[in-house]
């Protein structure tokens, strides 16, 4: 306002040119010319009339424009918002289609302005735009559900798995015992079957069960999780560490699950995981059918019309959970899995291998080549051996054979030699006993030859010949204890012994 007054003073009283006034007031010559033009139209000149306020001068120079009384056809902004979620659809395309139906409608700039005003008041979970069938966000709820042991009365917390589709916010919720790998992958399988299709991307948090090594650039997935993704033809895109907006959909889904499902179950008592999931199912259906607050329809209706048609079909077979681990083949060319031993060809002794095991099978790989496949056994300490894997005629395997173990044992003492003989003879193939024999003989390095000799004598007397037994004897110092005295044999002839004739 002061600049306008200074422009009038310099022009009327000072007789300065527009350029000189512009340099003095620090505005452009065009602005000076506009101020003077408006002053002439308003009948103002310098000096200003007494009692004329700044507000009055401002209204005289810049009178408010009358609002347009033309009523423009209003687009269906909710439909515009949904259409923007489709691949290749832009505001320009939607505006052109709008103008084809309403030639007297909004111009493009006004169309964009009104849409942004509509989108700004939407909840954050609805404001994000995702292509149909593109992303499935997965995570665990921070809240748990207590499951009571009917026998002991002890409470066990059940974890709550939540998954949300990006475009429709269609939600899946289930309870599992843990957040471990088996439960994590199992929930994914059941979720995809619940959806009836497969999205393009999975967006998990950096849970250890899913992401082995979080990284901004190259996150390393758990091998089993990667195998599940390959089975269903889906890409895993982990959220960035400490970036909750990367998975805002599932964060909001977790909040809704807590409010509309878990909160309603807080007064119920559950005695099995199955009971929890049966209670969740009707509440989950109600949640997905619940109408949106500011958009037409519901998660269910938008899923049926937008997400479901875009999902890829499920594969013909269900994913079978498999675990992977890294192991080294023993000198007996067997690999231990859950306290059972499985053979590989003898030439791979001491080589590192990858082990893939399911509930029914065990597979062993070396540099991507499958060496062996076995039916899984639950017998602890047992061996599953393929005859073709054995060394020819039970000959030397990388310098190790039965005689070498016996010679080594003889150097320690006769009791140790006897134990090693019994270990090797107790196996169907001597090679199956190499690992146990090696473990027993290496105990001498930790405890000395004399103590191992005594421990072997004690183990042979008690008929508990195994590596674990001998290690326990030495660890607890039982080899240093005096042997338990044995009871003297009773006499065969005694006055109190009646004999068989007594009963006849």
Please tell me about this protein's structure:
This protein has 504 residues and is an alpha+beta fold. It has helices at 2-13, 18-25, 29-42, 54-61, 77-84, 91-101, 108-120, 124-127, 181-195, 223-232, 248-262, 273-289, 299-310, 402-412, 414-425, 434-447, 449-462, 467-475, and strands at 135-140, 145-148, 155-165, 171-176, 201-204, 211-213, 220-221, 235-236, 323-328, 334-337, 340-343, 352-357, 361-366, 369-375, 383-384. The protein has 18 helices and 15 strands. The strands form four sheets. Strands 1, 2, 3, 4, 5 and 8 form a six-stranded mixed β-sheet that branches. α16 packs across α17 (449-462) and α17 (449-462) crosses α18. It starts with a helix and ends in a 29-residue tail after the last helix.
Intertermini distance: 139 Å
Basic shape: elongated
CATH class of the largest domain: Alpha Beta
Total E-strand runs: 15
CATH architecture of the largest domain: 2-Layer Sandwich
Which secondary-structure class do the elements indicate?
alpha+beta
- Main sheet: strands, sense, barrel: 6 strands, mixed
Q: Which parts are unreliable, with pLDDT below 50 for 5 consecutive residues or more?
A: 124-128, 394-398
Query: How large is the count of helical segments?
Result: 18
Number of domains: 5
CATH superfamily heading of the largest domain: Ribonuclease H-like superfamily/Ribonuclease H
**Strand percentage, roughly?**
5-15%
What Rg, in angstroms, do the CA atoms define? 41 Å
On the 0-100 scale, what is the average pLDDT?
A: 82
Could you tell me the CATH topology label of the largest domain.
Answer: Nucleotidyltransferase, domain 5
Helix content: 40-55%
